[in-house]
């Protein structure tokens, strides 16, 4: 063959990308009778350039998509852009560029970058979440949810930066200061819209069971903890008479409720603790019932976010009031404490320092009594800390000797019988506040009317779009200052009204984009989804993304799926059938990041070696779930392998199908080469469909190629190329398609039968044991008779059998020969 077989990635990659694009090879088909696979990598934020994390994410998804396409599936493998959000506004402030322009320029650039990687995305299904057509249906969902009571408006305490005039997410508060301007963050009550994710708490928890074995167990545990279901007792502490008088001022306060998951420890209560926001604390503060210094300390805690309080030392003080223990009648002092959360349970706790760590820390600091009411079920307790495990009740008249489980139920029963408390279930998960005082987001489609109050925009008026002419300074919300946009007619009475100027949390957009891809672009104009196609494609068969989304995004998306199902838009209960969380890309042991200066730019790698090398390295360097350490010489290695593959292909016969080979007649090296090739083939289904250990498949292909290079049979080489190119096509699609076109006219790519004969061994490797002791091994032809094998064994074992009497010789089929000897 005289063809020039120099590997020139730039040339062939461009060529194939154009062919794929021209033929529309990656567009999903509308034939719903075909078996389908929906493969989805999490869509990117258009920050400007793609990074190695993207390359990893999209290469994994692409390999799967290409694999399933080869195997006859109708594949949906879409991409889009999660394009609303803060960075666009920050760019606007810094570079005086409009967020929209910045965003869409970035999208164009990144789309080009993704194309150079040869990713098999559908082009027709691409969208950006800031597109008005996307906003339109997002607002429709918001209104439908509002009408159903799944969206509501309330005032709540939020992190507020006075300087920037905006709410900050917990993640944007650094050491109590605004991450952007550095001013102190305060806690402020602000009205906003909330999504009732708590309505779905139980279902979100229950359905985690269906995901077992299909999602990483770590993610399931994180979601379970976040939902945080617990059951226990709620009861009311009565204030004693004196305390009632202290609080007497307005509406009578008789006592307060507490929630405990450990009613079995009730005899160990040594104080009660209230959240600083508790109404009793407020009453004392407002009534001037506390010393100035005490009031000051409480106000300081009030100004901290829950997160900061959690991070700081336990703090609090005695409030000068007492309650009565419901079982013993003892006097229990009431404290205010920074570790009691205002919005969990009743915002108050019965404190049992002996058996709760936080109560213990607090009691130790303030010298409060510690009463032991549980002992370990087995062994001794060494003390010096709280005994938090379940055990056996002690010092507890009603329940002495019972296990903690039994005691818990017995106390609940008693409280219920006496009508002084009840069994309750609590969830940690909170409703999702989605209001943001920002410009670059989807406007919340609500109108405030003087007469009608809060009114949803009419569906036919959607989308409510952003005005382009705004001043973005970073102070306050530009929408709030845009008079002509803001003032509208009330959708209900036609009177003077004002638009809601808050926009939605961008997690709102990423909570349903996967379902949007499942309808085609013609549907998008008119409806959120086309029922037939969305029911065909959903749910996502394989979702791929970073572990950093283990809770928020994945939980919100699960919630949306269920809420949209109940609104009649979708069918499935869960959006993502299987989830793969990819590990981070590191360099020198650290996450690649601009600030650490250890970034490797994908563009540079593609420019130097081509996309196939980048893809091969990324999938070869580590299993996808594990961290991946960047390694320049391994990149070189990947490149060299592709060169070898390319050069070696000159010895391959051009043909349209796998040559027939008479295996038995081949020499040892040739048989070995075939075995290695078929070993790789045998592995491949598991790799692509089950465990995603692409690295082992690539290694198997490399070994196979080496074995092929060590022999010279053209049929064996041809067969090897046919198979290896098939196996590697999802990973290095440009090289594989190029060679396959030359050698096999791209004839393909059907399922290749695994031939058993290539795994049959010519010779047996047998062990020799003498009196049960292993002495060595020997080789015998597979075709040898038992007698021939024994004869061979005697020869090989001559050293140990010399001048000995053989009493018995036993051949254990295929394994070993044992000699029993005397002397
Ligand atoms: C007494 C007790 C004794 C408790 C004991 C624990 C161990 P989970 O499981 O997370 O639901 N608690 C109740 N409301 C609280 C609030 N608003 N802020 C902070 N802590 C609160 O936790 C329930 C337990 O957390 C409750 O059970 C209560 O302390 C505390 F040996 O009551 B426990
Ligand atoms: Zn009105």
Automatic annotation (TrEMBL):
A motif ('HIGH' region) lies at residues 44-54. GO terms for biological process: leucyl-tRNA aminoacylation. Residues 224-415 form the Leucyl-tRNA synthetase editing domain. Residues 671-786 form the Methionyl/Valyl/Leucyl/Isoleucyl-tRNA synthetase anticodon-binding domain. PROSITE patterns: AA_TRNA_LIGASE_I (PS00178). The keyword Aminoacyl-tRNA synthetase applies. It is an enzyme of class 6 (ligase). It holds the Pfam family Anticodon_1. It is found in: Cytoplasm. Belongs to the class-I aminoacyl-tRNA synthetase family. This is Leucine--tRNA ligase. The gene is leuS.
């Amino acid at each position: 063959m005289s063809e020039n077989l120099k590997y020139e990635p730039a040339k062939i990659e461009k060529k194939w990308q154009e062919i794929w694009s021209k033929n529309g090879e990656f567009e999903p088909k509308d034939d719903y009778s075909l078996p389908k696979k929906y493969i989805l990598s999490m869509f990117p934020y258009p920050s400007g350039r793609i990074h190695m994390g993207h390359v990893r994410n999209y290469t994994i998804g692409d390999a799967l998509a290409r694999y399933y396409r080869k195997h006859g599936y109708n594949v949906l493998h879409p991409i889009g852009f999660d394009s609303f959000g803060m960075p666009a506004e920050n760019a606007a402030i810094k570079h005086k560029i409009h967020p929209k322009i910045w965003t869409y320029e970035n999208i164009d650039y990144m789309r080009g970058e993704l194309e150079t990687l040869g990713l098999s995305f559908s082009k027709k299904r691409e969208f950006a979440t800031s597109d008005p057509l996307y906003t339109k249906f997002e607002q429709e969902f918001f209104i439908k949810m509002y009408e159903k009571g799944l969206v509501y408006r309330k005032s709540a305490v939020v992190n507020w930066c006075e300087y920037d005039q905006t709410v900050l997410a917990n993640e944007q508060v650094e050491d109590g200061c605004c991450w952007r301007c550095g001013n102190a963050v305060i806690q402020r009550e602000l009205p906003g819209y909330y999504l009732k994710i708590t309505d779905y708490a139980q279902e979100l928890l229950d359905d985690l069971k269906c995901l077992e074995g299909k999602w990483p167990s770590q993610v399931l545990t994180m979601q379970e903890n976040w939902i945080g279901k617990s059951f226990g007792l709620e009861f009311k502490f009565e204030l004693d008479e004196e305390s009632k008088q202290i609080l007497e001022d307005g509406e009578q306060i008789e006592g307060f409720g507490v929630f405990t998951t450990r009613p079995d420890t009730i005899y160990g209560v040594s104080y009660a603790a209230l959240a600083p926001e508790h109404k009793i604390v407020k009453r004392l503060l407002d009534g001037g019932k506390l010393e100035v210094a005490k009031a000051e300390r409480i106000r300081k805690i009030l100004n901290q976010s829950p997160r900061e309080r959690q991070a700081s030392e336990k703090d609090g003080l005695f409030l000068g009031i007492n309650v009565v223990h419901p079982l013993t009648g003892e006097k229990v002092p009431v404290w205010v404490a920074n570790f009691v959360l205002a919005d969990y349970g009743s915002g108050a706790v019965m404190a049992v320092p002996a058996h709760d760590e936080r109560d213990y820390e607090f009691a130790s600091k303030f010298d409060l009594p510690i009463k032991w009411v549980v002992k370990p079920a087995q062994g001794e307790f060494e003390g010096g800390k709280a005994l938090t495990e379940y055990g056996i009740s002690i010092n507890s008249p009603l329940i002495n000797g019972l296990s903690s489980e039994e005691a818990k139920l017995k106390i609940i029963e008693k409280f219920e019988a006496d009508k002084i408390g009840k069994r309750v279930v609590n969830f940690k998960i909170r409703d999702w506040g989605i209001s943001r005082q920002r410009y670059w987001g989807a406007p919340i489609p609500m109108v405030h009317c003087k007469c009608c109050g809060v009114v949803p925009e009419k569906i036919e008026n959607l989308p409510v779009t952003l005005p382009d002419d705004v001043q973005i300074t970073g102070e306050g919300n530009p929408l709030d200052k845009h008079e002509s946009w803001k003032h509208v007619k009330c959708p209900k009475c036609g009177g003077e009204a004002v638009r809601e100027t808050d926009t939605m949390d961008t997690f709102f957009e990423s909570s349903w984009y996967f379902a949007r891809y499942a309808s085609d672009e013609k549907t998008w104009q008119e409806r959120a989804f086309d029922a037939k196609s969305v029911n065909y494609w959903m749910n996502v068969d394989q979702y791929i993304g970073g572990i950093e989304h283990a809770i928020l995004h994945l939980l919100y998306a699960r919630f949306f799926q269920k809420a949209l199902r109940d609104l009649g838009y979708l069918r499935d209960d869960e959006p993502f059938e299987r989830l793969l969380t990819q590990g981070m890309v590191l360099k020198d042991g650290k996450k690649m990041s601009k600030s650490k200066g250890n970034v490797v730019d994908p563009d540079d790698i593609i420019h130097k070696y081509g996309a196939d090398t980048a893809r091969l390295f990324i999938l070869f360097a580590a299993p996808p779930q594990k961290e991946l350490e960047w390694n320049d010489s391994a990149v070189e290695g990947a490149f060299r392998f592709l060169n070898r593959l390319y050069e070696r292909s000159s010895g391959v016969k051009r043909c349209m199908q796998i040559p027939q080979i008479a295996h038995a007649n081949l020499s040892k090296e040739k048989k070995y080469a075939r075995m290695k090739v078929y070993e790789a083939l045998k592995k491949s289904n598991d790799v692509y469909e089950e465990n995603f250990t692409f690295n082992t498949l690539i290694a198997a292909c490399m070994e196979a190629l080496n074995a092929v290079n060590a022999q010279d049979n053209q049929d064996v080489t041809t067969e090897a190329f046919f198979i290896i190119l098939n196996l590697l096509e999802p990973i290095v699609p440009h090289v594989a398609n190029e060679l396959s076109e030359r050698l096999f006219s791209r004839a393909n790519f059907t399922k290749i039968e695994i031939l058993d004969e290539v795994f049959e061994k010519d010779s047996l490797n047998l062990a020799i044991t003498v009196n049960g002791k292993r002495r060595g091994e020997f080789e015998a032809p597979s075709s040898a008779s038992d007698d021939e094998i024994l004869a061979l064994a005697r020869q090989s074992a001559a050293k140990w059998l010399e001048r000995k009497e053989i009493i018995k010789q036993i051949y254990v089929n295929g394994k070993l020969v044992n000699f029993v000897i005397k002397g």
